Amino acid sequence: MLHxxxxxxxxxxxxxxIKTGLLISALAVCFLIDRTYFFYPPSLAPAWNNVWVDSIGxxxxxxxxxxxxxxxxxxxxxKVGLGVSVAFLTVLLVAESFHIVGAGYFRFHPxxxxxxxxxxxxxxxxxxxxxxx
Length: 133
Known about the structure:
By secondary structure, this protein is mostly helical. Helix content is 72%, strand content 0%. The protein has six helices and no strands.
């Protein structure tokens, strides 16, 4: 109940959808271009560098961009876009954590900062999103 009272003055920001979608799409395009980005552990490298994983992230980013630009309020589309985006970013953070912890290799700091920023934006969108509207 308190959530609804606090949410009366906060309409869902289209700008949050756009900037988060652009960030996720940019990350996915970067990973599509660099096919050898993930290398540790060697048995999982082909799965993490797969084109399909990056394509899913690109599609999730495009869904968020379209929801923001065209002010789409279809609940299923918004929920799928948010859910797939969070899953994509979680997979990226886990893969990069394997590199940092397992291999002691830390070259991913710009990507990790962008991913954490995107997760914070997704949390803000999820907090502001009221499916009853």
